[in-house]
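User: I'm putting together a teaching handout on how sequence relates to shape, and I'd like one worked example. Could you take SDR family oxidoreductase from Sediminicola arcticus, show the sequence you're using, and then write out its predicted structure as tokens right after it?

Assistant: Happy to. First the sequence, then the structure tokens directly below it.
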Amino acid sequence: MKRIGDKIIWITGASSGIGEALSYQLSKLGCKLVISARNQEQLLKVKNKCNYPERIHILPLDLADYKNMEEKVQQAISDVGRIDMLINNAGISQRSLIMDTDIDVYKKLMDINYLGTVALTKAILPHFIAQGNGHFVTVTSLMGKFGSPYRSGYCGAKHALHGFFDVLRMEHEKDGIQVTLICPGFVNTKVAINALTGNGKSQLSNDLATEKGLDPVIFAKKMIHAITNQKFEANIGRWEVAGVYLKRFIPKLLHTVVLKSKVR
């Protein structure tokens, strides 16, 4: 891979959490960035805190509005000339039991986490093909590899992303396109606070496991390492990463461990 500091990178979900930490770390490395989220005011704060704010371009984006992604892609390319890498980071989590969750909540989780990400990816795909290279980096979750109570819709959407991007890699490797799936465990962000409950309202409280999760700066550095090493997939976390291997080799043990952990 060409030195990452030479890349023009588009980051979704850049107003907080992992996306914000990535913006700072990639800016330090000299990357030109397009940063997107719904909150334009918060994006401006992120831009001004970057090492080279003059190399940061703000593009407000709502993944739920996935029918307008081609327009957003054209605007991004017009702003910075080209895009070398799209980091699909934006998304929303869930904290509710299946019996208590409205079907509209499941639809919102799929619209944002899956369809919005797929629509943006498809919209920029012709640009990557035309220039003969491009790198999709999609932040899924360990919940895209195994499940946990209170996250049924979130797990479903994240599992779907794995299926889609594995096929994208297969179909477009011949076009010089790379795909990296990043699977976070617990990271100390607002993901739990913003998580949807059964009626669609935000949880507005944190989880102990999330509070004790990886610092976003540490996570961002590990993620950049995986990207620069052109990993197909990287599981980034602490003890919870073991769940991936238990799911593969001893799924009944994973079932017991997850239920006993009482993680919410």
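A couple of points you could highlight for students: The longest strand covers residues 177-184. The radius of gyration is 18 Å.
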